[in-house]
């Protein structure tokens, strides 16, 4: 039986230092550290994320879900008037295991009332530079990135055109799906590897179909989600939004998610009524971001497999 | 055969793809944070030998392939087929030229080979890493010339041609690394 940890002692020390540095960063900026429940009554409707479910226990009257991020609970705190908040916690995503994924992982999430997503990107860059040292920083829209590296406009291209493009770079076998599948495929297989030498690369203003929980606005006549992703030397590290504050639209998106789940024969999950009630009450205009702490540690210590930064990875847990 | 989902793809698993048995070499989980999860899978087509990467949606599945690797003794060839025997059961298998491929250059009777069976028939044959074969043809040996470092081609009993040092002559038995086709030394006397 292999009882020993996956990570070397130096990795555990580097993690402790990193967590202290992150807490120092937010203390200095007067962002409040908070804790919210890990085991929640609502799951997540996003069809690309699968929660783990806890079904039995004396305290369990209805199934509970291990959080996939602390987003909903933190938004309830914001609506209650918390002001700027951050949380360092664990999140769980079923089926996500690989060189850069562990089904249980450490997440840093924070919210900034009155910031738009551009202001938040600047703060994310400041934190990363404080943790990793000086790095080049670049801000590029999703559209510009596709135009620059693939000479295609992601907003106006048809699915068939993106599929043809993908076939030039890789073997997609029998893959089939909507336009977002091909955009995701090109992003993860063709573009992401090319970001390897570009330091901090913020990609912002995603197609409206990939807006997730961000506000959708018109930019040059095209609806875009005010969402951003940060890649650090080709490693996807953080995802942020100028947060959707409209309860009615939030409800519609949750319902649309569950419809897509039904279409794909995925389980449907109850909508978080607490969040909707909080949005009804009033979520302040804000931006928020979630960042993978284990990956930040991988970048800091220069290791390639996530298990090397975890005391006990999924198989040893 | 059972079906295997992408999260069960491990190095060494044999699956059917486009009608051919394939061996999985590597399986990488790729997922944009808010998007579709994929598995980028490196595999070898066991019929053609081609190695490449194909991308699947996470959760897709493939049928397992009835592929087994067995250590067998090489018996003989009648030029159309090469015959192998399972040493425990004495069961015999015939492999055609397609399955044997270039391996025929290293097959010596009674040597142990790795035979890959697909649906019970040989699909490919891997020779032992080292074989000892007799030189059947080479330029006359230069006696005592062990220092000059030159080499010459030598034809072996199987038809393979390898570069050998100048001092070796016809009738001598040499040891060859079948992975590189390189001369390793004179065979140990036994």
Walk me through this protein's architecture.
The complex is a heterodimer of chains A (317) and B (190). Chain A has one domain: Bira Bifunctional Protein, Domain 2 (BirA Bifunctional Protein, domain 2, 2-Layer Sandwich), CATH 3.30.930.10. Chain A has nine helices and twelve strands. Chain A has helices at 9-28, 71-79, 117-132, 142-150, 159-169, 179-194, 247-263, 273-282, 293-301, and strands at 32-33, 39-40, 53-54, 64-66, 85-92, 104-113, 137-141, 200-207, 216-219, 222-232, 235-242, 286-292. In chain A, strands 1, 5, 6, 7, 8, 9, 10, 11 and 12 form a nine-stranded mixed sheet that branches. The longest helix of chain A is centred in the N-terminal third of the chain and has 20 residues, at 9-28. Chain A starts with 8 loop residues before the first helix and ends in a 16-residue tail after the last helix. Chain B has 190 residues and is mostly beta strands. Chain B is built from one helix and 16 strands. Chain B has a five-stranded antiparallel sheet. A five-stranded antiparallel sheet of chain B has the order 14-13-12-15-16, with no helix packed on it. Chain B has a four-stranded antiparallel sheet with strand order 2-3-4-5, with no helix packed on it. Chain B starts with a strand and ends with a strand. Chains A and B meet through helix 6 of A and strand 3 and strand 5 of B.
């Amino acid at each position: 039986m292999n009882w020993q940890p996956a990570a070397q002692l130096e990795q555990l020390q580097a993690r402790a230092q990193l967590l202290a540095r992150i807490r120092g960063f937010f203390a200095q900026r007067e962002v409040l550290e908070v804790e919210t429940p890990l085991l929640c009554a609502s799951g997540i409707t996003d069809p690309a994320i699968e929660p783990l479910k806890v079904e039995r226990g004396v305290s369990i009257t209805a199934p509970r879900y291990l959080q996939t991020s602390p987003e909903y609970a933190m938004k309830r705190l914001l609506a209650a008037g918390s002001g700027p908040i951050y949380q360092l916690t664990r999140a769980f995503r079923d089926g996500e295991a690989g060189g850069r994924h562990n089904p249980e992982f450490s997440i840093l999430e924070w919210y900034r009332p009155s910031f738009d997503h551009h202001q938040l990107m600047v703060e994310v860059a400041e934190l990363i530079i404080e943790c990793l040292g000086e790095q080049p920083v670049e801000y590029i829209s999703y559209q510009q990135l596709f135009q620059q590296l693939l000479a295609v406009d992601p907003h106006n291209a048809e699915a068939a055109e993106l599929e043809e493009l993908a076939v030039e770079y890789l073997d997609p076998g029998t893959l089939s799906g909507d336009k977002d599948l091909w955009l995701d495929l090109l992003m993860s297989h063709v573009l992401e590897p090319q970001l390897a030498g570009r330091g901090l690369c913020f990609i912002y203003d995603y197609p409206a179909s990939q807006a997730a929980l961000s506000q959708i606005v018109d930019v040059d006549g095209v609806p875009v989600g005010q969402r951003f992703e940060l890649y650090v030397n080709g490693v996807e590290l953080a995802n942020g939004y100028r947060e959707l504050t409209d309860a009615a639209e939030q409800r519609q998106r949750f319902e649309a998610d569950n419809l897509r789940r039904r279409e794909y024969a995925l389980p449907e999950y109850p909508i978080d009524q607490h969040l909707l009630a909080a949005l009804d009450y009033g979520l302040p205009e804000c931006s928020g971001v979630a960042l993978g702490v284990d990956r930040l540690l991988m970048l800091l210590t220069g290791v390639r497999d996530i298990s090397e930064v975890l005391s006990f990875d999924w198989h040893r847990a | 055969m059972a079906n295997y989902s992408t999260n069960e793809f491990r190095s060494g698993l044999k699956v059917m793809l486009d009608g051919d048995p394939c061996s999985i070499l590597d399986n990488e989980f790729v997922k944009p944070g808010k998007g579709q999860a994929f598995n980028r899978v490196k595999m070898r087509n066991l019929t053609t030998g081609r190695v490449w990467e194909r991308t699947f949606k996470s959760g897709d599945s493939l049928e397992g392939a009835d592929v087994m690797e067995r250590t067998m003794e090489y018996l003989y060839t009648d030029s159309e087929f090469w015959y192998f025997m399972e040493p425990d059961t004495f069961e015999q298998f015939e492999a055609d030229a397609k399955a044997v491929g270039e391996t025929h250059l290293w097959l010596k009777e009674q040597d142990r080979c790795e035979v890959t069976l697909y649906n019970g028939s040989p699909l490919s044959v891997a020779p032992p890493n080292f074989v000892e074969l007799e030189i059947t043809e080479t330029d006359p040996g230069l006696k005592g010339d062990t220092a000059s470092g030159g080499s010459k081609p030598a034809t072996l009993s199987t038809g393979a041609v390898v570069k050998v040092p100048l001092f070796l002559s016809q009738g001598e038995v040499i040891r060859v690394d079948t992975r590189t086709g390189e001369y390793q030394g004179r065979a140990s006397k036994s």
